[in-house]
Specification:
- By secondary structure, the chain is an alpha+beta fold.
- The protein has 4 domains: 115 residues, PAS domain (Beta-Lactamase), CATH 3.30.450; 100 residues, Beta-Lactamase; 101 residues, Beta-Lactamase (2-Layer Sandwich); 164 residues, Alpha-Beta Plaits, CATH 3.30.70.270.
- Helices cover 42% and strands 31% of the residues.
- The protein contains 20 helices and 22 strands.
- A 5-stranded antiparallel beta sheet has the order 2-1-5-4-3. A 5-stranded antiparallel beta sheet has the order 7-6-10-9-8.
- The radius of gyration is 54 Å and the shape is rod-shaped.
C-alpha cells in the first residue's frame, strides 16, 4: 500500500468514526461523499445519501438561495445554524461548519453538521427560566462566598431602588444591616450544609429606609462552585395584616361579650375567652359543641330553618335562655350576623348575659308601677287595671266594684310610735287585703294609708253582684280590724271602706274613684270600721 493510499484510508476511517455528520458537496450542492453519522442523522443509507442535493435536506433556504450562499463561501470558512429535514419529514436543528476549497479546478464544500436539537430545547428552556427569574415578582439575588452580589432581577432593583449596575457593585452588607462578615460566614456554612433556609430580616433601600423581608435562601454546587441564591419578598403588608389580626384577636378575646362563630351545621367553630368563661368550658371543649349544647331550646332538626332565616335577613336580635356546663340556666340577648368568609358561611353571634339588665328592667318597672313599701300596684298601675276592668265588664256584661279603704286613726300610730311602725302596719294591711280577694283582683296602695281594690266579674245582676261584693268587703273589714303585732307592740286598728259598683262604661275612672271615696267618708262619718256602698240618689 502506497503512502497516499495509507493516508486516504486513515482519512476515511477518521471521517467514519466522528460523531458529526460529514458531507462533501460540489458547487451545485450535490453530495460527493458522506460519512455514516450524516446518514444516520438524516435517516438515509449511504447509497440514498449520495444521490441527494443540499436542497433535499435543508429546509431553511430555497435551492437558488443555497447556490448563492455556496458561491459566496468559496475559499471561506463559515459556521452557522440552520434546519435539516430528515427522510421522514421531521426537522432538526443543526450547527454547520463548512469550508469551500478548490482542488484541481473543482470547487468542493467540506461540511460537518451537528444535531443541536436537544441543545436548542435546553437553551429555550433556559431562556424561559431566565425570563421568569428576571420578571419574577419576588426579588432574586445571587451572591458569591464573599457576599458580593453577582446577579439581581428586575424586582430586586425595584424593591431596593437601585439600578442593576449599582446593585452589582454592592455586597450583602450594603443592603442588609442585620449581617456582619462574621455572621455571613456562619450563615454561608449553614446554607452549604443544609441546602436551604427560610428566615426573616430587614433590607435597606437606596433611600435608607428599612424593609421587613422574608428570605428563602438556597445553595447548590455547580462544577465545584457554590451558587447562593436568595428569593426575597417584601412582607410589610403581611406584617401589617398580621398585626391587625393579632390586635383583632386580642380585642375579640378580651371583649366582655361572648363571641362565637357557628357553621351551617350548628357546630361552634370559634369561641372567645369570654364565651368560655361564661359557659364554663375550655376552648377545646367549647369547639366540640353544637348550638343545642348551650341552647337547649334549639332543636338540631330546626337549625336549617333558623339558618335560612338568618341568611335572608342578614341579622337577627334574639332573647332566649342558655345553659352553662354546670346546668345553670341564664337569660341571654343575642345579636346574630350572617357572614360569608373564604367561601364558607357563618353565624357570628355576640351574646351577653342579660340577668342584670332584666333585673334592672324589672326594678324600673316596679318603681314605675309598684309601691316600693308594700310592693302593691301603685296609682299608675291601678288606673291601667281599672280601665281594663271596665272594658272586660262591657264585653261580658258583668258587674265589678271599686273599694276605697282608709285606715282609721293611722296618724295617731305614726305620731306615737313613729313611721317605722306605720310602715310595718301598711305592709301587713296590704297582705291581709290580698288574702281576702282573688288573684285576678287588683289591690293597690293609692296614697298614704289609702288602698283601692278593683273586683272583677261579680255577677250579671246588680243584686247578686252587690251581695257578693258586700261579702268580700266585710271580710276585708274584719281582717283589718284584727290585732296587729308590730315588733313588740300590739296594735288595734280598723278601716273605713267605700264601695262603688260599675258596669260597662257608665262611669269614667275618675268618677268611680270619686264615688268610692265619697262612700268611704260616709263609712267614717258613721263611726268608722264600717262598709258603705255609694248611692247616687243620696248624693
Amino acid at each position: 500500500m502506497t503512502e497516499t493510499e495509507s493516508q486516504l484510508k486513515r482519512y476515511q476511517t477518521l471521517i467514519n468514526n466522528v460523531r458529526d455528520g460529514i458531507h462533501v458537496m460540489d458547487i451545485q450542492g450535490n453530495i460527493v461523499e458522506v460519512n455514516d453519522a450524516f446518514c444516520d442523522m438524516l435517516g438515509y443509507t449511504q447509497e440514498q445519501a449520495r444521490k441527494l442535493n443540499v436542497a433535499d435536506w435543508n429546509s431553511q433556504w430555497s435551492k437558488e438561495e443555497l447556490l448563492a450562499i455556496f458561491k459566496n463561501l468559496v475559499g471561506k470558512k463559515a459556521r452557522f445554524e440552520t434546519m435539516h429535514r430528515r427522510k421522514d419529514g421531521t426537522l432538526i436543528n443543526v450547527e454547520v461548519s463548512t469550508n469551500g476549497v478548490t482542488i484541481e479546478g473543482q470547487t468542493y464544500f467540506f461540511a460537518s453538521s451537528r444535531d443541536i436539537t436537544e441543545r436548542k430545547h435546553l437553551e429555550h428552556g433556559l431562556r424561559l427560566l431566565q425570563y421568569s427569574v428576571d420578571h419574577a415578582q419576588d426579588a432574586i439575588f445571587r451572591l458569591n462566598q464573599k457576599a458580593e452580589i453577582v446577579y439581581v432581577n428586575d424586582a430586586a432593583c425595584k424593591h431596593l431602588g437601585y439600578s442593576q449596575d449599582e446593585l452589582l457593585k454592592l455586597s450583602l452588607f450594603d443592603i442588609n444591616a442585620d449581617f456582619s462578615p462574621e455572621r455571613w460566614a456562619v450563615h454561608w456554612e449553614n446554607i452549604v450544609n443544609t441546602g436551604a433556609k427560610r428566615f426573616e430580616t430587614h433590607q435597606k433601600r437606596k433611600d435608607g429606609t428599612l424593609v421587613p423581608v422574608e428570605v428563602v435562601a438556597n445553595c447548590i454546587e455547580i462544577d465545584g462552585e457554590f451558587i447562593f441564591t436568595s428569593f426575597v419578598r417584601d412582607i410589610t403588608e403581611r406584617n401589617q395584616t398580621e398585626e391587625i389580626l393579632r390586635l383583632t384577636q386580642f380585642v375579640t378575646d378580651q371583649a366582655p361579650d361572648c363571641i362565637i362563630w357557628v357553621d351551617e351545621k350548628a357546630r361552634i367553630v370559634y369561641a372567645n375567652e369570654a364565651a368560655c368563661r361564661e359557659y364554663g368550658y375550655t376552648n377545646e371543649a367549647m369547639l366540640s359543641l353544637f348550638i343545642p349544647g348551650i341552647d337547649p331550646g334549639t332543636r338540631i332538626d330546626r337549625w336549617p330553618d333558623h339558618w335560612q332565616m338568618l341568611r335572608q335577613k342578614g341579622h337577627l336580635t334574639i332573647e332566649t335562655t342558655h345553659q352553662r356546663k354546670d346546668g345553670s340556666i341564664f337569660p341571654v340577648e343575642i345579636s346574630a350576623n350572617f357572614i360569608s368568609f373564604e367561601n364558607k358561611e357563618y353565624n357570628v353571634a355576640f351574646m351577653r348575659d342579660s340577668t342584670e339588665r332584666k333585673r334592672a328592667e324589672e326594678e324600673i318597672h316596679n318603681l314605675a308601677f309598684y309601691d316600693s313599701l308594700t310592693k302593691l300596684p301603685n296609682r299608675r298601675l291601678l288606673l291601667d287595671r281599672l280601665n281594663l276592668a271596665l272594658s272586660v265588664s262591657a264585653r261580658n256584661h258583668q258587674y265589678g266594684a271599686l273599694l276605697f279603704i282608709d285606715l282609721d286613726r293611722f296618724k295617731a300610730l305614726n305620731d306615737t310610735l313613729g313611721h317605722d311602725y306605720g310602715d310595718l302596719l301598711l305592709i301587713e294591711v296590704g297582705e291581709r287585703i290580698k288574702s281576702c280577694v282573688r288573684e285576678v283582683d287588683t289591690v293597690a296602695r293609692f296614697a298614704g294609708d289609702e288602698f283601692v281594690i278593683v273586683l272583677e266579674v261579680a255577677g250579671t245582676e246588680m243584686d247578686d253582684a252587690s251581695q257578693n261584693i258586700a261579702h268580700v268587703a266585710e271580710r276585708i273589714r274584719a281582717s283589718l280590724a284584727a290585732p296587729y303585732s308590730l315588733k313588740e307592740h300590739t296594735h288595734h286598728g280598723s278601716s273605713s271602706i267605700g264601695v262603688c259598683l260599675f258596669k260597662n262604661h257608665e262611669k269614667s275612672v275618675d268618677e268611680l274613684i270619686k264615688c268610692a271615696d265619697i262612700a268611704m267618708y260616709q263609712a267614717k262619718n258613721s263611726g268608722r270600721n264600717k262598709v258603705r256602698f255609694f248611692d247616687h240618689f243620696i248624693q
